[in-house]
User: What shape does this take?
Amino acid sequence: PGVNIGLFCSTPMVALSRNVSRKQAMKMLLTGEMIPASEALAQGLVSDVVAAEDLRAETEKLARAIAEKSPATLRIGKEAFYRQVEMPLPEAYAFTAQVMVENMLEPDAEEGIGAFVEKRVPEWRPLGGGEG
Assistant: This one.
């Protein structure tokens, strides 16, 4: 931590202050104390904590779960997430309602709903709209 060597972690502070409470962020920034993985999980700094020997398997499992989803839907969701997160609440709801409408018009939404109804695995389009 920079504070331990005479540098205030100004740029890491931006992400930190947007992911944990202000009090927790300030404590970390001012003290430079390391926190255990369990506390990082409890504060929402990380999404999962796994044993070192399970890291590769768990990472691959997570990557496979994401890779099975529609690339177009993931793109839409990631873009919407990062745009709405800094908006005031009413504006965020209005924005995401519009995103949902636009998402429903995507071919992958039709494919996904059809696959669900037909009890089959969906066949997602690659990004760029090409065939294959």
The CA atoms of residues 2 and 116 lie 51 Å apart.
